[in-house]
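Q: Here's a chain of 185 amino acids. Please give me its 3D structure as tokens.
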Amino acid sequence: MTDIFSLVTDTDFSVLDFIQTHMRCAASDAVMPYITHLGAGGILWVLLAAVLICIKKYRRAGLTIAAALILSLIFCNGLLKNAAARMRPFDINTNVSLLIRPPSDYSFPSGHTAASFASAVSLLLCRCKRLGAAALITAALISFSRLYLYVHFPSDVLAGALLGVIFAAAADKIIGAVYNGINTV
């Protein structure tokens, strides 16, 4: 089992080091902290959910995002991060200069990524295609920023994206059942 974790960690560092060596530039160094802050605390997605809830046509989508974010908060940030207790890459490789304040919680899974994909996929499941496509691009950028900024391993981001999809699907089922229950009364 240790060999699998070593292989994953070695692969994770190979990807992170490739990004640091071949993709870093002054323009991206300036932009990536702003992109990552879009996902901080899920605030972008919380605001989007709140706005959509206020618009009758998009209320179901807003409620689905809200439910997906709650699932993400409980399972990613509340349970999985503490259970895995994985150190962040910058805590292991201290030679990298961070462009943002170092996060103080654990690395696995990426909460920014989980919340972003939970929201974007919720929109797509609710048939908000244009907004969902824009949200998916934003989610991908936020997720990549976590790698670029050396605060998450690629496996953290992949797990966060997968969990976000799962949370969106679960939220869609929950909100769909609520809506169907209301419509049958």
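Q: Can you summarize the key feature?
A: The CA atoms of residues 56 and 62 lie 10 Å apart.
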